[in-house]
Amino acid sequence: MRQASSFIPTLKESPSDAEVASHRLLVRAGFLRRVASGIYELLPLGARVVRNIERIVREEMNVAGAQEVILPIMQPRELWEESGRWSKYGPEMMRLKDRADRDFGLGPTAEEVITDLVRSNVSSYRDLPINLYQIGAKFRDEIRPRFGLLRGREFIMKDGYSFDRDEEGMRVSYQGMYDAYGRVFTRSGCTWRAVEADTGLIGGDVSHEFMVPAEVGEDDIAYCEGCDYAANVTLATFRRGEPPRGEGKAVEKVHTPEKRTIEEVSSFLGLEPGRFVKCLMFLVEDKPVAVLVPGDREANEVKLERVLGTDEFRLFNEDDWKRFPAYLQGFVGPVGLEAEEIVCDEALRGAASMSCGANEDDYHLVNVEEGRDFPAGRFADVTTASEGDTCPRCGGQLRVEAGIEVGQVFQLGMRYSEPMRCYYDDENGVSRPMVMGTYGIGVTRLMAAIIEQHHDERGMKWPLAVAPAFLHVLPLNYEREGRRAAAEELYRRCRKRDWPVLLDDREESAGVKFADADLIGIPYRAVIGKGYDEDGSLELQLRETGEKRKMEQDALLDFLQACLESLLTG
């Protein structure tokens, strides 16, 4: 590419709506432009990076035995009705009608379409397993698009689907994709962590997210310093310590005027927040349910959904408190409480010398004991893990860090095959549902995540495998015949090797060229300046480290060749 004739509209100022480095730098460097909220167009350099990521994904999918297909983004309502997701998916799926007034969804994912494809064309155990994938556009009407490509509405995604005879086969397929995903993210230059995750609207029982640690990550990851345990905090478990013990004192009612929150009451009574039983009221399928957690913990609604067996629940709102006046907001407590059910966090099992609401305005109870003073309907893990908690596997210490989800794999089981009648005939002619897995990588999100891990205040630092070019040739004072000739010769020799290279043939000052080169972030830079005038040498600069090396053109080409060979051999 010749920079003078390439479409690379760099900007000196950051866009006003850019909140994170990847969004800011992609726009400034001329990789990306906004069309509408959460919708972006990729310019030539951005398209090159995306194609490089797609190439890595394709190579790893093909090695793992998956086959590429192209599926429609317009998906008929009837298929989503079969799976039961047409109404459950909610407003994130854009719904529209064709001229014949038939309902379609703009596909946020493709489980229904791929299941329909396989059930229509596969009927025998001899045809299984099958692993199919595609790379293409998806649309999810996010309620709050933000962070550029990290939380967009239209995006490029790799989604894959495996079909097996039984659960054992599904687990083999799942592990194959899990391993392949790790190779994709490593080859893309990311530091990553695989964590246990919730299955959400996709469904299934087992799932792992692939997270790229970054300060701007919207998810929190709990991981152990002593072993390989890691999980999204929405799912992470931890070992509880011994609960607070007491001396068997009788319950006492204490006047706590206008003290409603844990912070207010703990300060007023001089008790640590952990010695309180926080009683949270949820409306579960239109019935009041109490959830008891330690005062220094938060209820985890993802865990609660699994415990309650339904996603139709929410914390009491103002209308609910008025509708159920027996529950006094700010003073509700478990002693004498009548509710449809009481769910108690495991940390409160056997706890004594606790405080809680007295179910009376301006009063709390002290010296409360679980078991003696209030019964738990059932115990469960319903709180969120925190920094410093004890690892459930090895007893080490949990740490919590922010991360960007760039991929997720699911063991779906028969979540789609049973309702959609995706069956096969086994060796005995018995019809059985196929056992499925699904696997996704956010290609454009991965592009942004790479930048979040590889940038500085001057611009991006692309890893070699995904960079828009291997080498950025910078002849200073391009109009000087000797420097121009050297730059053209280097450019020609790189092109002859079929290397992607960017030649800055603009008649701009050295300051402008260096600033744009830093911003664009190509990993290697060949500067042709005073050194060339003196002894014919070039200056090779490494964008990642800032290291500079003086060398002849042949040596520079040999160095780049060795870097590329090292990249290919892993």
What distinguishing features does this structure have?
9-stranded mixed beta sheet; single chain; 570 residues; Rossmann fold; 28% strand; BirA Bifunctional Protein, domain 2; 5-stranded mixed beta sheet; 3 domains; 31 strands; alpha+beta; YbaK protein; globular; 14 helices
Give the % helix.
Answer: 25-40%
Distance N terminus to C terminus?
A: 27 Å
Count of runs of 4 or more consecutive helical residues = 14
Which structural class do the helices and strands define?
alpha+beta
Catalogue the unreliable spans.
Answer: none
Task: State the fourth-level CATH superfamily of the largest domain.
Answer: Bira Bifunctional Protein, Domain 2
- The CATH class designation of the largest domain is Alpha Beta
Q: Say how many strands there are.
A: 31
Q: What is CATH's topology name of the largest domain?
A: BirA Bifunctional Protein, domain 2
| Rg for CA atoms | 29 Å
For the largest beta-sheet, the strand count, sense and barrel status come to: 9 strands, mixed
